[in-house]
Amino acid sequence: MIDEILVKATKERIDATIVWKTGSQTSFVIWRGFGRHNLIRELHEQNLTVPEIRQRLATGENSTGQITVLCLGQIRAILRKLGLQPHRHSAEIRSLREKAATLSREGRPYEWIAKEFNDHGFPSPSGKQWSRFMVEWLLHTAEKNSEPLEELHRRAILDALARGLDYEEMAVEFNERKLRRGNNYRQPWTARYLILRWGRLRRRQQKREQEQSANAAGEEPASSDKGHRKLN
Q: pTM score > 0.85 for this model?
């Protein structure tokens, strides 16, 4: 079935082509020696942890399909030589973080997200049941600042104002929707808090617009009015 095999080899790489009797060809690459570091680099770029990299190497689940048996310490040492930082969390945990971030942006309380994960049988890093504190930890790196929650509140309040709701009615609706007010899910929405929250959101938006205008004009941003204004 095979007519010939063409091989080109270096200390780090083997390029081979099988020429079949039918005239078709099959090419493949095998890394060897220090060239195997390329496999580890490729797997690291897929956001895999050290144990996940080891598993992919041992089962041939990589770009060349070759099987390479390395211990965790060897893989960590190679990553250091390549100047790469090992990923701390598995692909499964990162996927759950994305799910939690999506639910959080929708305004779901941390306790609600924890129950959702438990109901679906999603495993936690500790192997225990999900709690709101574990969800908060999971989202710690995803929610680097308050912008997602801030934008959620801005949209919700603007929508309520457009429908003619007053702050008392907004508070009732937001509590019924279980819209998260902050990291503490137990804090209910009140008319007074909505007035203060909307005032802060407007001032932050005005400040951002002033800074953007000043940057566009190449000027220093004007000082913002720190006084509290009465809302109608």
A: no
**pLDDT, tens only, 157-212:** 988 887 788 999 999 988 887 788 876 556 889 999 999 999 999 898 888 888 87
Contact yes or no for 148/104 (Cβ under 8 A):
yes
Q: Under a CB-based contact definition with an 8 Å cutoff, are residues 89 and 50 in contact? A: no
**Integer CA distances (angstroms), 177 to 43, 107, 135, 188, in order:** 42, 9, 20, 11
Task: Please classify residue 181 by burial: count the beta carbons closer than 10 Å to its beta carbon, then call 0-12 exposed, 13-18 middle and 19+ buried.
Answer: buried
H-type alpha helices, 66-217: 72-81, 91-105, 110-119, 132-139, 147-162, 167-177, 191-217
Query: At residue 220, what are phi and psi to the nearest 5 degrees?
Result: -75, 140
Six token digits for residue 163: 């429908």
Q: Are residues 124 and 176 in the same domain?
A: no
Question: What is the per-residue burial (b if ≥16 Cβ within 10 Å, else e) of 143-165?
Answer: beeeeebeebbbebbeebeeeeb
The amino acid at 225 = D
Residue 225 within any structural domain of the chain: no
How many structural domains comprise the chain? 3
CA-based diameter of the chain, in Å? Answer: 87
Q: What is the DSSP-derived secondary structure letter of residue 64? A: S
Q: Which domain holds residue 165?
A: 147-217
Radius of gyration (C-alpha) of the chain in whole angstroms: 28
